[in-house]
Fold this protein.
Amino acid sequence: MTLEQPLAVRPPRTLAEAAEAHLDDVLGYLLYLTRDREAAEDLTSSTFEKAVRLWARFDADRGTARTWLLGIARTTALDWFRAESRRRKREAAAALPERVDEAFVEGLSPALEAGLSSLSAGEREVLVLRIVLELDGDATARVLGISPTAVSTRLSRALKRLEERVNEG
Amino acid sequence: MTVNDIVDELRATRPRPSDALRLQVMTVAARPAPRTPTLRERLRGRRRLALLVPAGAAVALTAAVVVGITRSGSTGQVQSAAPDAVRSAATGTTERSLAAPPPVADATTALKGATPTPIGGRAQRYSAALSLQVDDTDALSSATQQALAIARDLGGYVVSVHYATGDGGAAAVMLRVPSSNAADAVTRLSGLGTILGQNVQIDDLQATLDTLDRREQQLRARIAALTAAIDQADTDAERARLEEQRAQARAALRDVRTSHAATSAEARNATIQLDLRTKQESGVAVPGSRLDRALDKALAVLAWEGVVLLAVAIAAAPFALVAAAVWTTRRTRRRREEDRLLATS
């Protein structure tokens, strides 16, 4: 019998422990959000760079390391989206084609990949958190900064839309 | 494809990081964090702020209690009256006020020990002023009658009485009683109502009488000497001058004897001024117990602190409202911008 809690339950003592446990989650979230594997990997790296600086502020009583890291990942991704928005405006002015990464998740069927691509980042975000990463409603609400009810509503709409798009194709 | 199929496929194809990314992230995560305030240090600072409110309340309450207790006064002065009376014999004058006398029930008992008494064997001017409150005009009439009876009973007399009634009532009685019965008179008069105030003054007259005695003896001796000189005067002119001086000495002796008689009369009788008022007439609140006064003071301090706090809150409220509005607006705008960004990406 051991007195130590399993890693899934007890809060990580170091950021390395947290990274080991939640790297997949951070990458998956960013991948679904950006639909760009290269960007997602860069943002994952940036997320943990920020986490190193902010680790002293992590408070296990206020949330799990996973939601804390996903929150940092979201902020990092939003900054990336802003930069991308400015880049697209410049490229649109120069008539350059928009970069599209169709196969951003390995193993997905083409129909589902196309369906996901047709959703907005906000819809993909709630799908990845609730379906892929299997966060509960409260944890998802904390990451997104909205109420659990709003999370349910967004998820329902996103799933319905995805089902429609997949079956249309 | 159903929703369940979609969910199953999404979960089955959960993204995995490449080995290169894992190595990169683990290298980053293993780096020592830059020196920033620890969570404990940050929490300590926040806790201090959070503690300010209860700590401030505790300080305010303590200040109120301390002020209430220290400024509520004490009824213990009554027991120290007797030594003051003894001291009066040496210093010449004793004046004593009881601003917070004991309740009526034990007033008479307490005042037996509290009222200064003249010192036997010495001539003293004893004057006392008593302010009493009675329930109504019937009680006022009864107390006035009893005061007159007490004066007569103790061998004294009434100098003046003013009695008036209306919605309330008031009476002012001036009594003179033998000095030997003065303390007894004050004690008995105190039992006629609730004491609002008491003032006893004792002036030592013995030194004055001794001076007058010495002056009288000097004048008598001078008169005797002048009488002898007149008998032996050689000329009429010298006799006339000496007789003139003797007449002046006799006049001075009469003045001294008159003063002596008046001073002795003052010492024989004490003057007691008694003021009686009904509750409606009384403008003076009946002093409560020390606990009551302490509570009143503490509540007054708390009320004052509350007023100050309210003033600060009122002054700060506009700034706080503006700050809250700015914060809410910025937060809402940021949310909207993020939603728009995620909806169009």
About this structure: The longest helix of chain B spans residues 290-343. Residues 311 and 317 of chain B are 10 Å apart (CA to CA).
